[in-house]
């Protein structure tokens, strides 16, 4: 099997087939990567996880009421569910003796369970089934009616969302940066950290629901965290991290689509696997924090502690 | 209550289901719901007996181990492990090419352990924090598992994959006797582990440094605990599903955490809540056809949690709200009685026998509108401490109302005197403090203060302190 046949031919012969899938994967990973940086830096990655699970009942209810997997009702449903999840988590851990981790666990599992039940009661013979929740249906994108540039409507929507996220991140770079690292300073500058938090969560809900039909509700968390985690191993400046996470997003989506073709597996998990591989490579080889450099500097950390 | 008292019940349930054939529960869904309910409670269905026994067993184990992870503030490690086992499940399936519980148990436990070790390794070697490390492991392992499951499907084992599918959202109906035996063994071992290692685990849970200083092998105990956590997650996996099994760990334990204060009570309460939630799940999915079990178990657990969150005796939201409301009422009632008493004392009340106080005067003293005042007074009348004097726009204290008013005034003035004499407060600064504390001083405390002040007659402002004998 020559390299040409493995790496080049699929792209030449089925370009029209893979173009929408590739574009979708890229839009999703880019939008997620941009937001993910803030989640990782603020140490609330798992709130992102909670939101990605919690939008499910919103999506399910909107789907049952309108019978379609796209459109405004879906976004509104998901937005409401996502913000509600954020509020519930706040309520549970500020108004009882529970800690944040338990509050997150209880909130998202409850909302997710409601979503799964709604879907399995109503969605058995429709587009929205439990497979979609798990894997997403990115592979079927090319079967859909194209709207623009050979892309179906869902992809265009996701592209617009990714673009908006990019614009928002650039416009509010300073505000987000400050409220990320020092909420007291942010408050003194007239930025309301609570408001920033809720807005971030709302944008996150929109991204999650835009990505839902393609990657499902569970794998989104990897696309949020992996790029940011990888880039924070390489740099300490936010804008460098942003650029690196974008690079991670591009690479993982391309490699993921390729992996999916090669192994005949769904695209969304394949993208995550590719992203994980990049993370592992960086984790091992990163010049300052990598395992190799760590080992070179200090071959036996335990021995040095005892000495 | 101890372990020995509940083990026979579990064994009994197990024995009941020994002759069972693994039939799908909920098969006869054309029956009306009532008949289905009757079938549930008569335990006539052999598949149902297996499902119930399994649910009770892993519900209890999840509650026990969940208590430890909730108090250790690592609730989401259960979530990470439960997602991370998926590649192990797929590998175990690949190894035996069948739904062999032993191979799957071994593969899944190994994958879960590797997952939790990777979380720890990421945290120790990089500056990535726990939340991101958990998220990375959770989603990456899960994605690998999904890919592997699809690859298994591609190899043509699709006919047997139906069993594998239940690992995602849970289907208690696929449990067979082999699974039940595996669950039984794991749960019994887990219970014994918790009993044997109760004290070390408790110490580690609350203070790791202290545990280390007493010479406990903290790392080994951690590993052992995580091993059993993984075991426990794996056995609950088929019935609850990868995605939601962590809820069965967290929610019953969190419910117990809201209700009790001591760890050994929490273990019991959590185990019972775990069992109840699991049985609720089995019941609901028995009523409907083809509904996944896991979500219903989670909803059962969440409803219990919601009840505890709202109505827990000490920490519940509604309970606290009612407590504060009662206290606010009490304070406002006592203040009203005090105002009436002061007006009577100043001699501004009517002269006829038991003094009636004019409402306008009272409204001025209390600085509220007449309408508000009237509402408050009506509440006091229903308590039997004041009565309205007919046709005069006046209000008078009853016998018991007068006693109560004297008691409050007495507390107020004694406290003022105490502050000026014993704590060197200026006499013009003591009123506000006394205004607050007069509602909370107990009778014994007041008597003690009075003794200490040598039974005084007047307060710092020269007003008489009502004596105890006359109260």
Question: What do you see in this structure?
Answer:
The complex is a heterodimer of chains A (307) and B (471). With 307 residues, chain A is mostly helical. Chain A has helices at 3-13, 15-41, 45-66, 72-94, 100-122, 130-135, 153-171, 173-181, 183-188, 193-215, 220-232, 238-263, 267-285, 291-297, 301-306, and strands at residues 146-148, 151-152. Chain A has a two-stranded antiparallel ribbon. Chain B is built from 21 helices and 3 strands. Chain B has helices at residues 3-16, 33-42, 46-71, 75-84, 86-96, 101-125, 130-154, 161-169, 177-196, 198-206, 208-213, 218-240, 245-259, 263-287, 293-311, 317-345, 359-366, 370-382, 399-422, 430-437, 443-452, and strands at residues 356-358, 386-389, 394-397. In chain B, strands 1-3-2 form a 3-stranded antiparallel beta sheet. In chain B, α4 (75-84) runs antiparallel to α13 (245-259) and α19 packs across α20. The longest helix of chain B has 29 residues, at 317-345. Chain B is elongated, with a radius of gyration of 33 Å. The chains are: A mainly alpha (307), B mainly alpha (471). At the A-B interface, α3, α5, α6, α11 and α13 of A face α4, α7, α13 and α15 of B.
Question: What attributes does this structure have?
Answer:
heterodimer; A: 307 residues; mainly alpha; ABC transporter involved in vitamin B12 uptake, BtuC; 2 strands; 2% strand; disordered C terminus; B: 471 residues; Arc Repressor Mutant, subunit A; Diphtheria Toxin Repressor, domain 2; 3 domains; three-stranded antiparallel β-sheet; 21 helices; elongated
Question: What topology does this entry show?
Answer:
The complex is a heterodimer of chains A (307) and B (471).
Chain A: H1 3-13, H2 15-41, H3 45-66, H4 72-94, H5 100-122, H6 130-135, E1 146-148, E2 151-152, H7 153-171, H8 173-181, H9 183-188, H10 193-215, H11 220-232, H12 238-263, H13 267-285, H14 291-297, H15 301-306
Antiparallel strand pairs in A: 1-2
Helix pairs in contact in A: 2-7, 2-10, 2-11, 2-12, 3-4, 3-5, 3-10, 3-11, 4-5, 4-10, 7-10, 11-12, 11-13, 12-13
Chain B: H1 3-16, H2 33-42, H3 46-71, H4 75-84, H5 86-96, H6 101-125, H7 130-154, H8 161-169, H9 177-196, H10 198-206, H11 208-213, H12 218-240, H13 245-259, H14 263-287, H15 293-311, H16 317-345, E1 356-358, H17 359-366, H18 370-382, E2 386-389, E3 394-397, H19 399-422, H20 430-437, H21 443-452
Antiparallel strand pairs in B: 1-3, 2-3
Helix pairs in contact in B: 1-3, 3-4, 3-9, 3-12, 3-13, 3-14, 4-6, 4-7, 4-13, 5-6, 5-7, 6-7, 6-12, 8-12, 9-12, 12-13, 13-14, 13-15, 14-15, 16-17, 16-19, 19-20
